[in-house]
Amino acid sequence: MSDRIITLFTDTTFFGISILNLLLAVTVAVMTFLVARAAISFVQRRVKHWSSHSGALSHVVEKVLSGTSNSLLFLASLLVGLSMLDLPERWLSRVGSLWFVVAALQIGLWANRAIGLGLDRYFTRHNPDGSQQSSALATLSAWGARVLLWSIVLLAMLSNLGVNITAFVASLGVGGIAVALAVQNILGDLFASLSIAVDKPFEVGDFIVIGPLAGTVEHVGLKTTRIRSLGGEQIVMANASMISSTIQNYKRLQERRIVFEFGLSYDTPTEAVKKAPGIVEEAIKAQAQARFDRAHLRGFGKEALEFECVYIVQDPGYNLYMDIQQAINFKLLERFSKIGAKFAVPVRAIKVTALPQEANVHAQGRDNMGMRGA
To answer: What is the pTM of this model?
Structure first.
């Protein structure tokens, strides 16, 4: 009975391979997968333990190993099992190519995970608030590095499979030119986002003004930038349009230089006019976060004596500036009323040569004289 079973396993073949050899190959493949999986898990646990006591390198290694694909590991185990079989020469070359493909894909996955971790750590370290900067530079860096990585992996696999990659790369170059011409507007925004990322005229969280638009930057993408306006609505602008415009960035404002004007009427006493600059200076210096610069009688306008005053608010906050300006205005109203200085108001003088009734009488008199003459 046992001889029959042994004969069955040794003499029965599939594709020229006995059942016994197939079972041996499957057993080796399963054992290889289990051992490899256990070994990787063991290394991960050890590295994770080391990362809790040592530097960041162990943490990176542990995260990279967690990117091991079970599917690729199982495929590699099957290839180990196939190596136990007596395969024809042409199948051996194919198995060798599959080994390269599996290894290249797994290395690509590990490198992809390492790129993500490395960029995360870089932008976290170089961001002032200690968190990853949500900017176009981070997005472009990750995207560019991953495209380069998988391009190399793909070309390496194609070359190993016997594809002429020289002609392939040349055809990609011609196709790339055609695509670039078709999507030149998109590419313009893409390079504009790169310019924003490198030059950094603004970042997420900055309050900017572009022409008639004003708001806080919420997101800088590859094609557009999203801004939350003061009214609450979201404004979406193309990156190319933004860098071609003049941008006022108020987030980087350290101090505010304020210039305000007022006019006194011409019937204000001369002594009161002379006291006006000093009163303005006192009103400004009374504010804790304001620094007086100058106050002058600038000139003689058509309707008023024109004064120009300048002071510095030592904080960029807009609400604080308005509070200080309001306090100064109240102080000027109070002091000017005490010295008899009057603010000028627009006045239009109309010269009346004759009242309507008198004009009618004169016109009627002229008509009567004309009739008598006739």
So the answer is: 0.50
